[in-house]
Design a protein that fits this description.
Blueprint: H1 2-17, H2 19-55
Length: 56
């Protein structure tokens, strides 16, 4: 039982050691997604306005 507990602790420590890098990656991807979403929204709005002007 003690060997299983030690193995489990090693596994958990290994998983936790990578968390800071993972959190940083998630934050960067979240910001990137937000910026791309804003970019697309602006360009879609401009495109829709141009189409509206053409149809008038």
């Amino acid at each position: 039982m003690q060997k299983i507990a030690k193995t489990a602790m090693k596994i958990l420590k290994g998983a936790i050691a990578d968390l800071p890098a993972t959190v940083k990656l998630v934050k960067i991807c979240s910001k990137l997604y937000h910026n791309l979403d804003q970019y697309n929204t602006v360009h879609l709005d401009v495109g829709a306005a141009k189409l509206e002007q053409l149809s008038l």
